[in-house]
Amino acid sequence: MIKRTPIGVRVLQYTFLVIAVIFALYPVWFALLASGRSGGRLYTLSLPGMFFPVDWSFENYRFMLFERPYLTWITNSFKVASITTIFSLVVCTSAAFALSRFRFKGREFFLIFLLAISTFPGILSLVAIAQVLTAVGLFGKHLGLILAFTSATLVFCTWNLKGYFDTIPIDLEEAAQIDGTTPVQAFFLIALPLARPALAVTAILAFMTGWGDFIFSSVLVPAPDTVKLAVPALYSLANSVSVPWGQFAAGAVIVVIPTVLVYLALNRYFEAGLTVGGVKG
Amino acid sequence: MNTWKGTRKGLTIFFFLFPTMLGILVFNVYPIVLNTYISFTNRNKFRPKPDCEVFFTGLLDPLCWPQFRQNAQGGLGQPYRLAEPLFANYQALLGKLFSAEALMALGKILLAFTPLIGAVYVNRRLDREIERPISSGGVWLIAIALVVGLGVLLSIRAAFNQLMTTGPFIIVVLRTILFVAIRVPLTFVFGLTLALILNDSRLKGKTFFRVALFVPWGASSVAILMALVWQFFFRQQGTINQLFSQIGIQGPIWLQNPVSAFGVVVLADLWFSYPFFMVAILGALQSIPVELYEAAEVDGANWWVQLQRITLPLIRPAVLPATVLTSITAFQMFGTAYAITAGGPLAGADTPGATEFVMVYAYRQIYQLQNYGRATAFAVLIFIMLFLATLYSLRITRITKGAYES
Question: Per the CB < 8 Å rule, is B20 touching A127?
Answer without folding.
Answer: no
